[in-house]
Amino acid sequence: MQHQKPLPLPTPETRPFWEGAHHHTLLLPRCRDCRRFHFYPRAFCPHCLSPNLEWRQASGRGTLYAYGINHRPAPGFEADVPYVIALVELEEGPRMVTNLVDVDPEPDRLRIGLPVEVVFEDVTATITLPKFRLR
Ligand SMILES: [Zn+2]
């Protein structure tokens, strides 16, 4: 049986992130009080608990903080294996779970600390997924 890939369901707190991605812009929530970025989006700053948040455009650059090469796909991802699940540390500080694309999913091609940049994959008419590639 062929499964469909699950899609993100934007919520009031994450909608600006998905709308930014739809326009191929990486937006991050930032606290107006302590001026630090965070991710994932939420109602309060995780650093100082302020609700005084704004959205800022991120550089789209970061480094590979951790990764795994997945050979046992979740339902819907059977055609993609092997693929790289990555934790990317953004220049602004937050870390984001994503996929590393446009790279051979081989351990000898990947190294912690490699510089990466965002790319945008339009999945549907409204949903775009930010992914990352080596830069
Ligand atoms: Zn804060």
Short description:
The chain is mainly beta and 135 residues long.
Report on this structure.
Strand 6 and strand 7 form a beta hairpin. The protein is built from one helix and seven strands. The strands form two sheets. The protein has a five-stranded antiparallel β-sheet. By secondary structure, it is mainly beta. The longest helix has 8 residues. The structure holds zinc ion. The site of zinc ion (ZN) has 8 residues, from loops.
Distinctive features:
mainly beta; binds zinc ion; 1 helix; 6% helix; five-stranded antiparallel beta sheet; 135 residues
Give the low-pLDDT segments.
none
By DSSP, the count of extended strands is 7
% residues in beta strands = 35-45%
Number of domains: 1
Mean pLDDT across residues:
95
* Secondary-structure element order, N to C: HEEEEEEE
State the end-to-end distance: 37 Å
What is the CA-atom radius of gyration, in angstroms? 16 Å
The order of strands across the largest sheet is 5-4-3-6-7
Main sheet makeup: 5 strands, antiparallel
Structural class of the secondary structure composition?
mainly beta
Shape: globular
**Helical element count?**
1
Question: What small molecules does the structure contain?
Answer: zinc ion
Helix content: under 10%
